[in-house]
Amino acid sequence: MLFDTYEFILIFLPITFFMYFYLNKKKMILAGKIFIVFASLFFYSWWNIIYLPILLLSVLFNYFISRKMLNINNIKKKKFLLFFGLLCNLLLLMYFKYMDFFIDNINFLFDSELSKINLLLPLAISFFTFQQIAFLVDNYKGIIKDCTFLNYILFVTFFPQLIAGPIVHHKEMMPQFISKKNIIKNYKNILNGLFIFFVGLFKKVIIADTFAGWANYGFDESKTLSFFEGWGTSLSYTFQLYYDFSGYTDMAIGAALLFNIKLPYNFNSPYKAINIQDFWRRWHITLSRFLKDYIYIPLGGSYNGHFSTYTNLMITFLLGGLWHGAGWTFILWGLLHGVALIIHRLWVQLGFKLWCVLSWFITFNFVNIAWIFFRANNLDDAQKVLYAMFTLKDLSYYINLKNYNFYNEQLLYIILVLIGTLIFKNSNNGIKMIRLNKFKLFLLSLLSFYLIYDYVIPRENVKSIFIYVDF
Fold first, then answer.
1. Quick check: 123 pLDDT over 50?
2. Rounded to whole angstroms, how far apart are CA atoms 279 and 175?
């Protein structure tokens, strides 16, 4: 089940909300938690119930390892359990997500004919695996003092963040479920949650899905592209990806807030970044935090000299690229960002500075170009778009205004969304400035009805999926 479907908005979310707080009102707090767990498992199973046993086995295994670690004082045994748990989690991820990629490369290198296993990728396996890896590491460090099975499964499966994050820490979420003030309805949270949720829905169905058509045409359908079509394709995907994923995150944060649970925000206007380091402090913040805390710092971080720092950065971003998908295009995307971060560090160390606007322009265009490898089905698709963008193909023809309509829908959309992206505040900051009143609630109700009636319900038989669900 996805957030932008009428089943979720009109049926699942209202029923879950009212049942949860009804049980809490009747002092059935334990039953309320159990209900949320079963609702979350139903939410997960809606897409394909075949994935459910994998999720449950992963939860049971990691909880078992966690309990063992909590009950052991011997540091060597505890470290062994940690490495065993990490290895099993990574093997599960590698088997389902990377086995066919590994077989393809073996066949290419050794001219063999090994058959691919063609496994279905379990929904959200990367997200719930990373979340549980973080839990095991925190357990080993002594951050986790105790955790019941009910609290643990609730932490992993809580439906707003289950499918595509944000990647949350146990210490961020579980104290909120335990807090007595959170078991009763909070009307301020409800209003703010609905506002953020419908902002996210607007981002998805109005902005992201509009750009998706242009991006899909350029990458998947068109055999060749002109200069303007190449740039239109790349920029369309750049905005589609951001508004799709930030839209999902807003909807997750909004849905969780209805239950008085505050999830960490995941985006802070990344396309306003003035350098690549600034971009990664703003983009997919919880993943960046995970990569920093559980890969970059354990490798040594920036404590062992410049060469070691650059090596650790490169390893971190190569793994970050591979985490997103089993393909060389994702690895190349990670490589590009690793190189860019190294160049930025060298630039800063040498004391160089750029005019702020120029720095933003370079950063935005680098990110836009790198996204091409992230989106392309293969290197040939990426080459097709890049060739169109940088060989000035058909440019002389289009310079004549009679031969090219500079005011077509795609260009106008790109300009408007770019301006809006740079001017408007991020939703997590905007909510702090908004004081909801009856008039604003009326406008919110109209927007909600409009989005559901005109965009959500008519897409009942149209396949529309949040991009990051595939990861």
1. yes
2. 31
